[in-house]
Design a protein that fits this description.
Strands 1-7-6-5-4-2-3 form a seven-stranded mixed beta sheet, with helices on both faces. Strands 8-9-11-10 form a four-stranded antiparallel beta sheet. About 40% of the residues lie in helices and about 10% in strands.
């Protein structure tokens, strides 16, 4: 493909993407295929000669699109929003076109400095403590996902707890303990395993009636481990759990962590974006006690995956945990103290992710992004009101932001049948969780193009499914 062919294909692809996003509502939200269907339509062997771009696009239409679950649909209410936007897509395209490898300042100074600057913008937008800014002792870095961000924070906590001797005799992972709530994301346990602490050294702390971590239970667990000669090393507080959007009391948890010298990580992967609205910034109360904080712009801030924003209070703790410098990476800028983001992450290489975040913030502005959050929160609160006002349904958890957990009063079987019926229509997609071991439906409202009519349609589908189940 030469430059002229690239121009033609590029225009065609942009037109295709625009048409897809404009018409995505017409597709069944949940992919209507069975395992193996897509591969059965693909050639068994790779082509020996190159194929025309038009043939590739045709196969996208005929093979790929029917096998997609359409995360950009306004009728996608499952899991969490996985938003994209036109400026974010353009930023991603530019990143691919530039093709830079931003592992160190010297390998692309603009990639590093733009990321530092945009992360400081995010800190300002969310009202984060000054310690998380690059102008202080901390700073921010774009990771792939919150799972990776949590693992990176855990490694820094491990090294801090052992003074960098985590592999030395007597202070290996077997003596370190981590804590999170029973409602925390599964990535916490995965990180514990990867970092070498082991699942047996993860304490799942009990929650209150609103599914938030109980500080008294955390304090008791830490004190018990200290008495047994173990080393409490890491606490993860969740600001917006996946199951119910419960918000752990970060202030009280922070006091306990300070008392015992334990690293506090705050995971606000989904909910953190809400803090761009001053009236919702209460959800980050107590963050001044945290050592690290993560939220994902690729969920609710219209920036396509992958873009996870990790902030640390002390960047030296992170860098000292992850920096290994062979001779071939040494250079004057690094020796002089320039930021090298390779030392802030697991991988050596890194893409120019800051571009898509920069494009998105500049295009929408803070007020435009705030409007999106406020609209979604208002829709969720209205939906919760419909549930409360219906004699067949009940709320299963508080609704602080944009996730509504509810169930049918007839019990688990009825709720599960309703979910299956709604998803089978292709006109909406929801998923479930279990709260207090009871089957619970989740209505996550956060897609860029979701309007009130889409939420109304979903509620009507739910009501029709309930009537069908009752027959």
């Amino acid at each position: 493909m030469n430059a002229d062919e690239f121009r033609r294909a590029g225009h065609e692809l942009i037109d295709w993407i625009a048409a897809y996003l404009e018409g995505v509502e017409q597709y069944p939200v949940l992919a209507q295929v069975q395992p193996g269907d897509i591969r059965a339509k693909l050639p068994r062997h790779p082509p020996q000669q190159g194929e025309p771009f038009d043939d590739i696009i045709r196969d996208v239409d005929e093979i790929i699109v029917p096998g997609l679950t359409h995360w950009q649909s306004p009728n996608f209410f499952a899991f969490f929003p996985g938003n994209s936007s036109y400026p974010s897509i353009l930023g991603e395209l530019l990143s691919a076109g530039l093709g830079v490898q931003g592992m160190m300042w010297i390998t692309s100074p603009a990639a590093t400095e733009l990321e530092t600057h945009v992360m400081d913008w995010l800190g300002e937008m969310l009202g984060l403590p000054e310690a998380f800014r690059s102008t202080s002792t901390g700073g921010g870095v774009i990771q792939t996902t919150a799972s990776t961000s949590t693992l990176v924070a855990l490694i820094a906590a491990r090294e801090s707890a052992t003074q960098g001797r985590s592999n030395a005799a007597g202070v290996a992972g077997g003596n370190l303990v981590a804590y999170t709530s029973t409602q925390a994301h599964s990535s916490i346990e995965k990180a514990i395993r990867i970092a070498g602490l082991g699942s047996d050294n993860l304490r799942l702390v009990e929650v209150d009636s609103g599914y938030a971590m109980r500080p008294d239970a955390l304090a008791a667990a830490i004190e018990s481990d200290v008495a047994a000669g173990r080393i409490p090393a890491f606490v993860c507080a969740t600001v917006g759990t996946t199951s119910s959007e419960a918000i752990d009391p970060v202030s009280a948890i922070g006091e306990i962590c300070r008392k015992h010298g334990v690293w506090l990580h705050a995971d606000a992967a989904m909910a953190g974006t809400a803090a761009i609205c001053p009236e919702l910034r209460w959800l980050l109360d107590g963050l001044d006690a945290a050592d690290s904080f993560v939220f994902n712009p690729h969920k609710w801030m219209l920036t396509n995956v992958d873009c996870s924003a990790l902030f640390v209070r002390d960047r030296a703790a992170l860098i000292n945990s992850l920096s290994i410098t062979p001779e071939y990476l040494r250079n004057q800028a690094s020796e002089a103290g320039a930021i090298d983001y390779r030392d802030w992450q697991l991988e050596l290489g890194r893409r120019f992710r800051a571009l898509k975040l920069w494009f998105t913030i500049r295009t929408y502005g803070v007020e435009g992004l705030q409007e999106v959050v406020r609209r979604h929160v208002a829709l969720a609160q209205e939906f919760a009101g419909w549930v409360e006002g219906d004699h067949d349904f009940e709320l299963a958890a508080p609704v602080p932001l944009s996730l509504v957990c509810f169930r049918h009063r007839a019990g688990d079987e009825a709720s599960e049948a309703i979910l299956d019926h709604v998803n089978a229509t292709g006109r909406a997609y929801l998923v479930h969780t279990k709260l207090d071991d009871r089957y619970t439906l989740r209505m996550s409202i956060g897609q860029r193009t979701t309007e009130r009519r889409h939420v109304e349609q979903a509620w009507q589908l739910i009501k029709e499914a309930a009537a069908e189940v009752a027959r």
